[in-house]
Design a protein that fits this description.
Helix content: 25-40%
CATH architecture: Roll
Shape: globular
Order of helices and strands: HHEEHEEEEEE
CATH topology: Nuclear Transport Factor 2, Chain: A
Number of domains: 1
Radius of gyration: 14 Å
Number of helices: 3
Number of strands: 8
Strand content: 35-45%
Distance between the termini: 19 Å
Largest sheet: 8 strands, mixed
Length: 131
């Protein structure tokens, strides 16, 4: 995995999020991928599990403003910050987070671990974010 490949995957992931395209998001993962959306939640497993999670997670989101920082690439691992401001369940929220990704040689993600924080209101990223 190189930086350009990582950026292309992240861009596709972001586009799927913006479009609420659960099947498009799932297509970025291996058939048996493990998607851990939060440290205290059970993982979503395989493309079907990822599709189900994404359908639930994005259904009440609107007015999404989404940005990704510069990915850090080390072998088959990529880490990237993200910053989302949106309306979720009728409330304005900001959701900053980070993805820790592991890829196969063919560029599909086989494991995703996600860490995030939900903050009321819309907030811009802090200075130096995403570097």
């Amino acid at each position: 995995m190189n930086r350009a490949q990582a950026r292309a995957w992240i861009d596709a992931y972001g586009n799927a999020w913006r479009a609420k395209d659960a099947s498009g998001a799932a297509s970025l993962f291996t058939e048996d991928a493990v998607y851990k959306s939060h440290p205290f939640r059970e993982p979503n497993v395989a493309r079907d599990g990822i599709t189900e999670y994404w359908t639930r997670a994005t259904q009440d989101q609107s007015d999404l403003e989404l940005s990704f920082g510069e990915p850090i690439v080390e072998g088959d691992h990529v880490v990237v910050e993200w910053w989302a401001a949106m309306t979720a369940d009728g409330d304005e929220v900001t959701l900053p987070g980070a993805l820790i990704l592991t890829f196969t040689d063919d560029g599909l993600c086989k494991q995703l671990r996600e860490y995030w924080h939900l903050e009321p209101g819309r907030h811009k990223p802090f200075e130096g974010w995403g570097l």
